[in-house]
Amino acid sequence: MPTISLCMIVKNEEEVLANCLSSVEEICDEIIIVDTGSTDRTKEIASKFTDKIYDFTWIDDFSAARNYSFSLATKDYILWLDADDVILPEEQKKFKKLKKNLNSNIDAVSMNYIAATDGNGNPTFHYRRNRLVKRSKGFKWIGPVHEYLAVHGNILEADISIHHKKREKKVDTQSIGRNLRIYENRIKNGEEFSPRDLFYYANELKDHKQYNKAIIYYQEFLDGKKGWIEDNIRACIYMADCYARLGEKENELMALFKTFNYDEPRSEACCRIGDIFQARKDFKTALFWYQLAVKMKHKKTGGFHHTSYTTWYPHLALCVCYWQLGNVEESIKHHELTKQYIPNDPKVLYNEEFFQSYLKNQNRKDSVK
């Protein structure tokens, strides 16, 4: 059975670190913690799980810190996590089984990353990441910020999920605007951005409400024609977000249509287009786009995935559109489909009461006839 080194970089993670490490300590044979400048109890907490705790002077470069942590590993494979990630009990069982049966010809293992969940713990936003890599391959992290692990070879897609479990943390004033600052310092230093840099810099601008500037960089990224398909599609969707914030509905719609330049229609873009036509009270056109969203919901992309757009959202919208178009039977049908996904959601509960009242009144009218 292969051995595993857990390699982590941390800073001021006292609220979450124990939860992370306790979820993985039975899986890993070695835990390596690289601290980039904690001023809280992070190291003290880490010491309860490992004595391999190292310091790394922060130089505004996440890849440098992660590569240093990887350089300290001694086991067959390296697992990486962030401090607010956890492996839930059922996923731990899957991971242990994977470890027991992992063939030595596997160079990397990708796992599903559940970045957000709803009130019932159901995933709402997820994507895949290469989490476990063979140490002897010497894979490196690339990029000072929004870094990625460059892997190649025989990659296994495992049915294992790692959950992002962000808890309330004290505000780290040094981290506010850090990523944007790193990018802008690189620009000042005359560095040339890769396509990935352009995409993630635009994301940071959007997140900091610099919408017009974000649009410029999303367009530069797309014009370069060197981006990953999923990032191209996401850039168009994020451009649509920016236009929406700026109140430019026509440009929002055009940005969503632009996603079709890169691949088959995605449910998210179709739903967003449907929303625009529904807001215009053009329910017939909106119906078309929501129906297309349902049709395309099973496409697997490996990119960012908002679960709502491939589950309940288009059915809820179809419920509304069919009602507005006078097709009560189809409206109720899609209400029932929505209910399968989010039975306790306030919108569903409201519609349930509405339809029950409507059908009761209809039955009363029929009995009078």
UniProtKB/TrEMBL annotation:
Which CDD domains does this chain map to? Beta4Glucosyltransferase (cd02511)
Glycosyltransferase 2-like domain mapped to chain residues: 5-141
Q: Which UniProt keywords apply?
A: Transferase
Tell me the organism's taxonomic lineage.
Bacteria, Bacillati, Bacillota, Bacilli, Bacillales
Name the record gives this protein: Glycosyltransferase involved in cell wall biosynthesis
User: Has the keyword Flavoprotein been applied to this entry?
Assistant: no
Q: Name one GO molecular function term.
A: transferase activity
